């Protein structure tokens, strides 16, 4: 069991990579704490976790774009579970628009949800993990943080911010026994790409060396590895999970 | 309310001793040398790294989770005592 008895907190756990991570973490012995805005989505994830792993997940509904809500959630987690071993910062939104057509409110929403939240969650998680001088944080960035992409000015910037935050946190928290890494998924079959036209998906597929889109559980496997003691000497790294799209 | 599960029966003297012990361990200063004037960046061992370790030690000792504003505001042993009172710790 890679995560035996570890408390693993996953944001954006109501769907996609977050849900897959919750299931894979629980399969690997973790006690998972599920957070997201959508209580319905969380409930569905919890049902799947129970069905597949016979473990009981904790649910803390949370809008990560609200720093005060993050602090409250942290206190709730501490009161309920007394410790935190792993944080997976997965929550995010993808809104595409060409450069001249991005509303200020959209930039704000993307930055708050994708980037600021990672900073605030890291602050809170580090406080809890420093109590036991151990822990692992895994951030979910994106291949687009490295390559950029048309129509993703704000999104790619927010995901690039996560890489900077990952490396800075890794440096600062290493002396406290806390590792911080990131995964950079490529094109993964989740709701985030459900709106894309078939032609665009075909284009992506051609650019992927492995010739297919990724599955959420393939990202989750890497997250579980980085969260586990198998990665005990790995920190400050960004691991691409993109089928060779970005080499 | 930030207090998680404090023991109200602890007296202020006991709490101050507990706080002094946390400072002493993190800053490697004998407990008897810790006065209200022991201050951030004025006491040699109390740098930013030690500050975070101190916060963790105090959080654990009193079973609280200090707000970030209080973490930033905790500039001396005297100030730490003042802040603890906000969390229901008699000191």
Compact overview of the structure:
Chain A has 247 residues and is an alpha/beta fold. Chain A has eight helices and seven strands; from the N terminus they run E-H-E-H-E-H-E-H-E-H-H-E-H-H-E.
Average pLDDT taken over every residue of chain B: 89
CATH C-level category of chain A: Alpha Beta
If you compute it from the alpha carbons, what radius of gyration of chain A comes out, rounded to the nearest whole angstrom? Answer: 17 Å
- Give the CA-based shape of chain B: globular
The helicity of chain B comes to 40-55%
Total number of β-strand segments of chain A?
7
Helix content range of chain A: 40-55%
N-end to C-end Cα span of chain A = 31 Å
Weakly predicted, low-confidence segments of chain A: none
Instruction: Note the gap between the termini of chain B.
Output: 18 Å
Main beta sheet strand tally, sense and closure of chain B: none
Could you say what the CATH topology of chain A is called?
Rossmann fold
Q: What is the 3D form of chain A? A: globular
Biggest interface, which chains?
A-B, 12 and 13 residues
* Multimerization status: heterodimer
Secondary structure category of chain B: mainly alpha
CATH architecture title of chain A = 3-Layer(aba) Sandwich
Describe this structure in words.
The complex is a heterodimer of chains A (247) and B (91). Chain A has 247 residues and is of the alpha/beta class. Chain A has a single domain (7-241), classed as 3-Layer(aba) Sandwich (Rossmann fold). Chain A contains 8 helices and 7 strands, in the order βαβαβαβαβααβααβ. A 7-stranded parallel β-sheet of chain A has the order 3-2-1-4-5-6-7, with helices on both faces. In chain A, helix 1 packs across helix 8 (216-227), helix 3 packs parallel to helix 4 (104-130) and helix 4 (104-130) packs parallel to helix 6. The longest helix of chain A has 27 residues, at 104-130. Chain A is globular and about 50 Å long. Chain B has 91 residues and is mainly α. Chain B has a domain at 45-91. Chain B has helices at 12-27, 48-62, 68-73, 77-86. The longest helix of chain B is centred in the first third of the chain and has 16 residues, at 12-27. Chain B is globular. The interface between A and B is medium-sized, with 12 and 13 residues.
């Amino acid at each position: 069991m890679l995560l035996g008895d570890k408390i693993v907190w996953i944001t954006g756990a109501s769907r996609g990579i977050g849900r897959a991570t919750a299931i894979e973490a629980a399969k690997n012995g973790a006690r998972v704490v599920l957070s997201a805005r959508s209580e319905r989505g969380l409930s569905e994830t919890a049902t799947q976790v129970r069905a597949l792993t016979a473990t009981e997940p904790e649910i803390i509904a949370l809008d990560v774009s609200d720093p005060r809500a993050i602090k409250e959630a942290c206190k709730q987690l501490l009161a309920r579970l007394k410790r935190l071993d792993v944080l997976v910062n997965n929550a995010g939104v993808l809104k595409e628009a060409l450069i001249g057509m991005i509303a200020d409110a959209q930039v704000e929403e993307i930055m708050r949800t994708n980037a600021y939240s990672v900073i605030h969650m890291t602050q809170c998680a580090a406080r809890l993990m420093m109590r036991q001088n151990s822990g692992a944080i895994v951030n979910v960035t994106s291949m687009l943080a490295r390559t950029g992409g048309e129509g993703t000015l704000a999104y790619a910037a927010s995901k690039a911010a996560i890489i900077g935050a990952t490396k800075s946190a890794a440096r600062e928290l290493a002396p406290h026994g806390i590792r911080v890494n990131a995964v950079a998924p490529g094109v993964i079959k989740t709701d985030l790409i459900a709106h894309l036209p078939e032609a665009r998906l075909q284009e992506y597929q051609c650019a992927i060396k492995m010739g297919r889109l990724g599955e959420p559980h393939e990202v989750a496997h890497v997250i579980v590895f980085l969260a586990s003691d198998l990665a005990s000497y790995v920190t400050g790294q960004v691991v691409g999970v993109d089928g060779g799209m970005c080499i | 309310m930030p207090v998680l599960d404090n023991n109200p029966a602890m007296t202020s003297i006991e709490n101050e001793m507990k706080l002094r012990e946390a400072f002493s361990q993190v800053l490697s200063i004998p407990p008897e040398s810790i006065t209200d004037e022991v201050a951030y960046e004025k006491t040699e061992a109390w740098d930013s790294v030690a500050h975070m370790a101190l916060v963790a030690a105090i959080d654990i000792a009193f079973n609280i989770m200090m707000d970030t504003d209080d973490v930033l505001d905790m500039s001396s042993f005297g100030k730490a005592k003042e802040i603890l009172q906000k969390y229901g710790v008699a000191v």
